[in-house]
């Protein structure tokens, strides 16, 4: 059960469409002929923005953030691979981790690919994904700020009480 080609193609497709998400994939794209389809060849589902629930979009946004981080992490490793065997091993590891990230976010690889393919040709869907990612980033920043503020109110030690 390999999701290597569709999963990576979906990630690359979405990342390259309308600048909603920036994923560094040049190194991974070097072996595109051997391992992935070109973004323009990603399957088109005919689905529109309205075809997906907010919960699906939120899960997709979470998965996409993880996929993006994995692509950025693995890009230099794949680029620096000494031979095709090492490159294939790294790409296999990347695919495994991407699939796990998608599943951890609560989507199947098929759902993830459907949303990514639909987003390729649907600006409204890309905007929904972007808003979801921004909301998550804002919530994370607020949580960090609150954690820092909460820590300031507590005495540093019992002797200060």
Which percent range fits the helix content? 55-70%
Contiguous helical run count? 7
How many whole angstroms does the radius of gyration measure?
Answer: 19 Å
Biggest β-sheet, characterized? none
Query: Could you give the distance between the termini?
Result: 60 Å
Q: Would you identify the regions where 5 or more consecutive residues have pLDDT less than 50?
A: 1-10, 12-44
Can you give a write-up of this model?
- By secondary structure, this protein is mainly alpha-helical.
- The protein has one domain.
- The protein is built from 7 helices and no strands.
- It has helices at 4-16, 26-29, 32-35, 54-79, 84-104, 109-120, 123-153.
- Helix 4 (54-79) packs antiparallel against helix 5 (84-104) and helix 6 packs across helix 7.
- It is flat and about 45 Å long.
- The model is unreliable at 1-10 and 12-44 (pLDDT under 50).
Secondary structure blueprint with pairings:
Elements: H1 4-16, H2 26-29, H3 32-35, H4 54-79, H5 84-104, H6 109-120, H7 123-153
Helix pairs in contact: 1-6, 4-5, 4-7, 6-7
Features:
disordered N terminus; mainly alpha; 7 helices; about 160 residues
Give me a quick take on this structure:
The chain contains seven helices and no strands.
């Amino acid at each position: 059960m390999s999701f290597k080609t569709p999963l990576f193609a979906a990630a690359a497709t979405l990342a390259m469409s309308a600048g909603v998400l920036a994923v560094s994939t040049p190194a991974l794209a070097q072996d595109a002929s051997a391992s992935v389809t070109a973004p323009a060849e990603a399957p088109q589902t005919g689905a529109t923005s309205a075809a997906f629930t907010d919960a699906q979009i939120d899960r997709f946004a979470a998965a996409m953030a993880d996929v993006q981080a994995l692509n950025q992490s693995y890009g230099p490793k794949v680029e620096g691979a000494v031979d095709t065997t090492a490159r294939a091993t790294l790409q296999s590891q990347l695919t495994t981790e991407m699939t796990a990230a998608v599943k951890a976010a609560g989507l199947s690889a098929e759902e993830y690919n459907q949303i990514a393919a639909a987003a390729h040709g649907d600006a409204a869907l890309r905007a929904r994904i972007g808003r979801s990612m921004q909301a998550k980033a804002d919530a994370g920043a607020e949580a960090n700020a609150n954690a820092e503020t909460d820590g300031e109110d507590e005495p540093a030690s019992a002797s200060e009480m």
